[in-house]
Amino acid sequence: MAEVKTAAAKPSGAQGNAGKPKNSSNFMTNLLVVIACVVAGFLIWKFVLGNPTNFHDGETREKASNGLGTMYQGGFVVPILMATLLTLVCFIVERALTIFKAKGKMDGGEFVRKVQYHLANKNVDAAIAECDKQSGSVGNVMRAGLVKYRDMTQNNELDTEQKVLSIQTEIEEATALELPMLEKNLVFLSTIASCATLLGLFGTVMGMIRSFSAMAQAGAPDATALASGISEALINTALGISTSFFAIVFYNFFTTIIDGITYGIDESGFTLTQSFAANYK
Fold first, then answer.
1. pLDDT in tens, 63-107
2. Measured on CA atoms in the order 52, 58, 59, 65, is the torsion positive or negative?
3. Dihedral Cα 249, 254, 257, 258, nearest 10 deg
C-alpha cells in the first residue's frame, strides 16, 4: 500500500495520467496468470493424473486403478476445471496479501481514537505520525486528510465551511484511490463462483452422454460399465462444486474485510471534518 499512499499525495491530474499504464499492466499480469494456470492445469491432467501407474492397463488408460486415474477419465473438462481451481488459488493469495496489508498494523477504532486525541490537542503532526504507524488504507486516507487539515489551519483566506469542504474533497479523492485497490480482482472470485459449478455439470453431462452412447453401441446393458462411466462423469461435478464453494467462501470473507475498512475510512473522514469544525471555528 506504500505505492498508493505516495499517489494520494499527488495532484489529481497526475493520477489520471499515471492510471492508464498501470491498468494495462494489471490486465497483462492477470492474463499471464490465467494462461499459466491453463497450461499448468493441462500438464497436471496429462502427466500427473494421466500417469500410466494410475491405470491397470498402463498406456491405454481405460481402467483406472485409483482416484487420480478416475479423475483423468473425467474428460477434457477436467483440465479446464483444474485451471479454474489454480486461478482461484492464485487470486485468493493475491487478494489476501493486499487486503490484509490494507487493514494496517493497528485496529481501526484504536487508531481513530489516537488521532482524535492528538487533534483535540491540536497536534496534527503527531496525528500524521499515527497514520504512518497504521500503514493501511484507513491510515493512507486519514494522512491525506490530515495534510490538508494542517494546510487549512494556516489558511486565512477561506472561511471554516470552505475549509471543511476542502478537507472533505481531499478525503474523497484519497478514498477513490484506495477502494479500487481493495476491490481489484474480486471479479475473478465471483466469476469462478458462478461458472465452476456450470463447468462441472457440463463435464458430467458430456460424460453421461458418452456412457449411454457406449451402452447403446454394445447392444446389451452393462451395469458395471454404466456405473464406471457415471462415476467418471461425476468427478467433474465434484471438482466444479468444490471450486465454486471455495470461491464463494473467500469472496464473502474478503468483502466483509473490505466493508470493515470502508467503514473505518468513513469514520476517519467524519472525525477530521468534525474536529476541524470544532477546533477552528
1. 888 889 888 888 889 999 999 999 999 999 999 999 999 999 888
2. negative
3. -140
- Rounded distance, CA 2 to CA 181, Å? 12
Q: Are 125 and 131 in contact (CB under 8 A)?
A: no
The per-residue pLDDT for 200 is 93
Give me the pLDDT at residue 64, please.
83
Please tell me the distance from the alpha carbon of residue 116 to that of residue 120, in angstroms, as a whole number.
6
Residue keyed to cell 491405454: 60
pTM: 0.83
DSSP state of 49: I
Long-range pairs for 33-36 at CB < 8 Å and ≥24 separation? 33/87, 33/90, 33/91, 34/83, 34/87
Alpha-carbon distance of 69 to 227, in angstroms, equals 16
269 CA to centre of own chain: 25
Question: What is the chain's mean pLDDT, rounded?
Answer: 86
- Residue 48: DSSP 8-state: I
Nearest C-alpha neighbor of 141 from the set 233, 276, 281, 263: 263
